[in-house]
Amino acid sequence: VPAGTLALLLGTLLWAPWRALHGAPHGAPLAELSGDQDFQLFLHKNLEFTRKIKGDVAALQRVVCDTFQLCKEEELLLVRQDLGITQVPLEKCHSHTFQVEACFSQIRNGLRTYHGSLAVVLGLLPGHAGMVETVQLDAANLSSNIQQQMEDLGLSTVTFPTESQGLLPAFSSDFQHQVGGFFILANFQRFLETAYRVLRHLACL
User: Fold this and answer.
1) Is 47 within 8 Å of 53 (Cβ atoms)?
2) What is the pLDDT of residues 83-114, one digit of tens each?
3) What angle, rounded to 10 degrees, do the helices at 174-204 and 37-68 form?
4) In this structure, what DSSP letter does residue 91 have?
5) Is the pLDDT assigned to residue 20 strictly greater than 60?
6) Which CATH number fits domain 30-155+167-203: 3.10.50.30, 3.30.360.10, 3.10.129.10, 1.20.1250.10?
């Protein structure tokens, strides 16, 4: 089996929701995009960029774990419910009706939301302000890269109801602030994992 085919098969098997991608009614543009050299260059460059941001977020998670002994999500779920911290949606990126426009729009919007939410972490870790600001800058740049690529490809931006996205929770105690920062980082890491899988899958088509 050719290496490229094997990689595609593995990617498909590792992430079940993508199995329906090729048969999805809105999947036609992917065949055209997959042969676009500029699009492939964008995918590979931003795969590495996303991997870099994931590593930096993981480093911040370790700081929160070491500093506040907040390391396990299952021990803090009740506090998270009280704070109302939720994951930024990316359902358009792994549904059976996958569309490049909708998925990229959600990734771009989510990066902007987390850029703002990281202010909670910045207030929590003043001694690591440089690390947090680097992640904020990188999130903003990745969002801009996606926006620019959508414009270059002539893809329309899809808008979604904002609901409460981007609104920072009010913390009534230092502990709530710490837990809030913990979950913002945990959610951002999961968001980046999904975005990474999307870019990697498109690069394999």
Assistant:
1) no
2) 888 888 898 888 777 888 999 999 999 999 99
3) 160
4) G
5) no
6) 1.20.1250.10
